[in-house]
Specification:
Layout (H helix, E strand, L loop, with lengths): L1 E6 L2 E3 L5 E9 L6 E7 L6 E7 L5 E3 L7 E6 L4 E6 L8 E8 L7 E2 L3 E5 L2
Parallel strand pairs: 2-11
Antiparallel strand pairs: 1-3, 3-8, 4-5, 4-9, 5-6, 7-8, 9-10, 9-11
Length: about 120
């Protein structure tokens, strides 16, 4: 199994920045890709960004392109989500998740709340 723990959420004003972290432990050698997802109140969970563990290639939802950046530190088994130019619509619980080459995202963290409000 893979255990994932997110941190770094909080309250930020519109236009501000936050950096989320996701620390992985356990069978991290099985991780192929790490993803960030979010779920706002009354809405379905949606994809935000992902990064391939081996080569760092990334993928983003259109709604966050140019504002968010995902990165990883292999030595620390940690993935980051740098969020800039935050908008009220970015308010949500943010989750990180991992997948193998043979599965969908099957391990999830507990989530961290991000609130963008003045």
């Amino acid at each position: 199994q893979v255990q994932l723990v997110e941190s770094g959420g909080g309250l930020v004003q519109p236009g501000g920045s936050l950096r989320l972290s996701c620390a992985a432990s356990g069978r991290t050698f099985s991780v192929y890709r790490m993803g960030w997802f979010r779920q706002a109140p009354g809405k379905e969970r949606e994809f935000v960004a992902s990064i391939k563990w081996s080569d760092g290639s990334t993928d983003y939802a259109d709604s966050v392109k140019g504002r968010f950046a995902v990165s990883r530190d292999n030595a620390k088994n940690t993935v980051y989500l740098q969020m800039n130019s935050l908008k009220p619509d970015d308010t949500a619980v943010y989750y990180c998740a991992s997948r193998t080459p043979y599965t969908n995202y099957n391990y999830w963290g507990q989530g961290t709340q991000v609130t963008v409000s003045s």
